[in-house]
Amino acid sequence: MPLTEGYTKLKSKAEQIVESVKSSKFLSQKKEMSLPYAYPCDNYMDAILSNGLVRKTLQLFADKYCKEQIKKIKSTGQLVSRSNYPHLYDVLQSCYKSLNVEDIPEVYITNQLKGINALSVGTDNAPIILISCKAVISLSDGELKFMIGHELGHILQKNLMCHTIKGLLDNLNSKSEILGPIVSDLIDVPLNQWYRCAEYTADRAGLICAGDIKYVKSIFQQVNLNKTSSKFDDYYELGYSHPDIKKRTNELLIYCKVLCLHKIKIGVSNIEEK
Fold first, then answer.
1. Residue 96 CB contacts under 8 Å (≥ 6 apart), including other chains
2. What is the torsion angle, in degrees rounded to the nearest 10, for the CA atoms of residue 97, residue 102, residue 106 and residue 108?
3. How far, in whole angstroms, is CA 135 from its chain's centroid?
4. Using CA atoms, how far apart are residues 154 and 237, in angstroms rounded to an integer?
């Protein structure tokens, strides 16, 4: 069939381009980790997304895409300040100090996020952290510090622009019968792997802010109550941007040992390695 033949040829050409890019000098230089707690990502998407020209091009799309979204968030959420949320403001200041944050993002409490949740949105140049109302009411200081530190980790990694592009690619994947599968085959799997590495880095930032992994276990339990395990989890994970909760916990346990070797004190109470 012509459509099938056309797709096969287009996919083959795209695969050739990807292989060419992977082996080129463009990706030959390893990216220096800008964050001391960054999780290593052995993935060609990392080299592509860290290239200055690529980032500038993607930033133009991201800025345009986010403009209306940010406007709506600011009109419906409550900006956190010392005067209206003094305790949460102090928690934020503690996180900024722990991660040496210099460019302070705006933080909004919103009812647009359901359950216990937080989200970093916007662009790398103008980041915003959203925190759900339930999270502010339900979480302890340590749990809040992990959640906020996690989002700060994404911001400090300069991930927000890439998050926006991922949303655009997902939209293309769902609407195009020809380009969608190519995006899925050639971009989605490596991009999701890159995302999972970014999640591990963000978790490390959250742990540094929280100071004890017991807060990580507690918040993971609260957001993972209905998750059931499967022998196919490793396969399913290829299509997900977030790692499995158990893997995230075990990765943080390993990182705790690294911190201990460097005589950096992080609590490891009330948790068992599985």
1. 104, 152
2. -20
3. 18
4. 20
**pLDDT tens sequence for the chain (274 residues):** 455 565 565 556 555 544 554 454 444 444 444 688 888 875 566 667 667 777 777 777 777 777 777 888 888 899 999 999 999 999 999 999 999 999 999 999 998 888 899 989 887 788 999 999 999 999 999 999 999 999 999 999 887 877 766 666 666 566 656 555 565 556 666 777 788 888 999 999 999 999 999 999 999 988 765 454 444 344 334 345 678 888 899 999 999 888 877 666 665 554 444 4
With a CB cutoff of 8 Å and minimum separation 6, the contacts of 184 are 173
pTM over 0.70: yes
Token pair listed for 144: 């809040």
Query: Are 249 and 271 within 8 A, CB to CB?
Result: yes
Identify whether the C-beta of residue 118 lies closer than 8 Å to the C-beta of residue 132: yes
Q: Tokens 């949320």 identify what position?
A: 85
Give, in order, the Cα–Cα distances in Å from 155 to each of 132, 213, 249: 18, 21, 21
Residue 210: count other Cβ atoms within 10 Å of its Cβ. Answer: 29
